[in-house]
């Protein structure tokens, strides 16, 4: 019977594990503060920006049809309904920190959280 | 030749059953794309016991058929991106002849998730999705490791019997 893990494997697995943990730590340190606005983009185009401080329900429409419903409550954004077949965006947990995203692949809808700084910059340009 | 066709058909059926079982397990971590990857057992096993070409063929057919039966067109695009990238990574690592099954499976798991993330980013034209990179990488490592252990046991036991 062959050995389960050779010397090479141990090294490779160790290096891969270190890379994974390293990337996790890097992203964790880069983790944003609580965000200020939820930005909705469709196929890379900005659809709208909505403040997180105000509870609201936004219907995201493509060609007049409602595709996703975005609910903002208590400073977090969540997709509650979607027209896509897999509903992965609905299952995704609600988001509230800077740079967090919810994706609806079939509708090409992305909801991103941005901080106050980034949104101010957007409105200037 | 006939025997081989029958074998490949059987392996495709096994891969599809794995896909089916996986579609029954709700496996949501709040992030789409994190899956156990049971079918990778079949791909790794074929890579070792049958051949690269055949393994690739079954992998692609499995993704297409499973997508039509248990998924949707978008799950096919996701899976193809992940499946092809992970296959290339596993094949290259196997060619070095210096690593065991578990390492190959871990690399496959990681690259599967990288492939999916790339495809998703291209589809929505938004590269901020890479925010989920750490979770997907770690998940790929862990699931790849578990699947690798299973595949190794299977390969050791089925060698020469098929």
Question: Please, what is the average pLDDT of chain A?
Answer: 84
Q: Distance between termini of chain B?
A: 14 Å
The count of β-strands of chain A is 7
N-to-C SSE string of chain B, H for helix and E for strand: HHHHHH
Give a quick account of the main beta sheet of chain A: strands, pairing sense, barrel closure: 4 strands, antiparallel
Mean pLDDT of chain B: 88
Total tally of structural domains of chain A:
2
Description:
- The complex is a heterodimer of chains A (125) and B (162).
- Chain A is built from 3 helices and 7 strands.
- By secondary structure, chain A is of the alpha+beta class.
- Chain A folds into 2 domains: 1-30; 37-124, mini-chromosome maintenance (MCM) complex, domain 2 (Sandwich), CATH 2.60.320.
- Chain B has helices at 2-24, 39-49, 52-70, 73-95, 101-124, 133-158.
- Chain B has a single domain (2-158), classed as Orthogonal Bundle (Arp2/3 complex 21 kDa subunit ARPC3), CATH 1.10.1760.
- Chain B is globular and about 45 Å long.
- In chain B, helix 1 crosses helix 3 (52-70).
- At the A-B interface, helix 1, helix 2 and strand 7 of A face helix 4, helix 5 and helix 6 of B.
List keywords for this structure.
heterodimer; A: 125 residues; alpha+beta; mini-chromosome maintenance (MCM) complex, domain 2; 4-stranded antiparallel beta sheet; 3-stranded antiparallel beta sheet; 3 helices; elongated; B: 162 residues; mainly alpha; Arp2/3 complex 21 kDa subunit ARPC3
């Amino acid at each position: 019977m062959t050995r389960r893990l050779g010397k090479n494997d141990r090294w490779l697995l160790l290096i891969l594990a270190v890379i994974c943990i390293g990337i996790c730590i890097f992203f964790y340190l880069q983790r944003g503060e609580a965000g200020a606005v939820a930005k909705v983009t469709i196929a890379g185009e900005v659809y709208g920006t909505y403040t997180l401080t105000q509870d609201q329900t936004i219907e995201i429409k493509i060609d007049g049809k409602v595709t996703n419903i975005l609910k903002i409550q208590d400073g977090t954004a969540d997709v509650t309904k979607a027209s896509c077949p897999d509903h992965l965006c609905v299952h995704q947990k609600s988001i509230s920190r800077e740079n967090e995203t919810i994706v609806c692949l079939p509708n090409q809808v992305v909801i991103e959280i941005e901080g106050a700084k980034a949104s101010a910059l957007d409105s200037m340009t | 030749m006939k025997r081989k066709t029958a074998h490949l058909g059987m392996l495709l059926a096994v891969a599809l059953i794995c896909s089916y079982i996986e579609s029954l397990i709700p496996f949501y971590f709040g992030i789409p794309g994190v899956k156990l990857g049971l079918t990778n057992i079949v791909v790794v096993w074929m890579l070792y016991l049958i051949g690269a070409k055949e393994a690739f063929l079954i992998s692609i057919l499995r993704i297409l058929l499973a997508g039509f039966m248990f998924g949707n067109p978008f799950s096919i695009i996701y899976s193809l991106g992940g499946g092809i990238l992970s296959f290339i990574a596993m094949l290259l690592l196997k060619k070095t002849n210096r690593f065991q099954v578990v390492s190959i499976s871990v690399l496959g798991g990681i690259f599967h998730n990288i492939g999916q993330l790339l495809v998703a980013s291209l589809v929505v034209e938004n590269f901020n999705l890479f925010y989920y990179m750490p979770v997907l990488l770690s998940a790929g490592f862990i699931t790849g490791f578990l699947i690798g252990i299973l595949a190794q046991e299977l390969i050791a036991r089925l060698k020469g019997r098929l």
